[in-house]
Amino acid sequence: MSYAIPILFVLLLIALYYFIDREIYFYEGMRLGPRLQRWLYDRWAADYDKGKQASQAEDESMLARPILEKLADLPEPLILDLATGTGRLGLTLSCQPNFGGKIIALDISRKMLQIAARKLSLFRGQIDLIQYLTLPLPFPDESFDAVCCLEALEVMPEMEEPLSELYRVLRPGGLLVTSRGTEASGRKAKIRSTENFSQLLRRFGFEQVEITAWWKYFDRVFAQKPGNAPPVGQHNLFGLLRCKACDKIGWQENPKEVLCRSCGTTYVYSNEKILIFEIDRKE
Ligand SMILES: [Zn+2]
Fold first, then answer.
1. Which range (25-39, 66-80, 200-214, 252-266) has the least confidence?
2. What's the CA gap between 20 and 156, in Å, rounded?
3. Residue 260 C-alpha to ligand 1 middle, in angstroms?
4. CA 201–ligand 1 middle distance (angstroms)
5. How many domains does the chain have?
6. Within this chain, do residues 216 and 173 fall inside the same structural domain, yes or no?
7. pLDDT at 283
8. SS3 assignment, position 162
9. How far is the CA of 138 from the centre of ligand 1 (A)?
10. 82 and 192 share a domain?
11. Ligand 1 centroid vs 262 CA: distance in angstroms?
C-alpha cells in the first residue's frame, strides 16, 4: 500500500505529459477553446517563423506567383487571409511588383498580428489586420475575389464551418487557396489522401481542385468557386465589415477606433493599427 501514492504520482505525470504533447503541441489547443488557443499562439508568436523557414523560403514560387497568375485578369483583387499568423501571405504578395490588390487579414492572436504588422510595415496601405476570435466571418456573401487559409484548417475545431464560410464570402469564379496536412504530419492529416480532400472541397461546392506537394507537412491546394461574377469592387474594409454586435455595416472611422453607426459599439485599434474586433462580454 505504501507504493500507492508514488505510483499514482507517476501515472499523473505520464497523463500530464500526454495531455501536453497531444492537446497543446499537436492540436495546438484547438480542442481547449478559442481563448486558450489564442493564449497559446500568443506564447508561440515570437518563435513562430523559425519553425516555418523551410516552407516560407518558397513562398514566392509556391504562393505569390501562382496566385497572381490565377488572378491575372484582376488588377486589384480583394483577398481574405483567414488565420494570417505572422502575415506570410501578405508579405510575399506585397513584395511582388505586379500586386495591386488589397488583403484583409484575420487572426486570433494579437502577438502574431503584432509581428505581422512589423513585417508588413511598408505595405499597410494594402493590408488590414484584424484580431478576430471565432467564426462566422464578419463579411457579407461574395465579398472577396480570393480567400486564403494556409496551414490552419487542421487546427480549427472542425473543417466544416471554416470551409462553408470561405465558400460563402468568395464571389462566384473566385479562388480558394488553402492547404492539406500531409500524412507525414501525423494526426494532423485529418483528411487522409488528396482524393478525399478534393472530395471534401467539392462537397462544399468548390471545383477545379488542384492539390500540389508543397513541403513535408502540408500540400498546397487551389480551387475555384463555380460561376463568373464580376470582380469585387469594394476595397474599403469598412464597406464590408459587419458589426459583431448588430450585424450591420456602417461605421464612423476615428483615428484610434471605429464606431458602429447602428448600435454604437466601439472597436479599438492597437498601437500597431490592428483592429481589435471583439466585444468584451462576460461569457
Ligand atoms: Zn453594431
1. 25-39
2. 18
3. 5
4. 33
5. 3
6. yes
7. 38
8. helix
9. 12
10. yes
11. 5
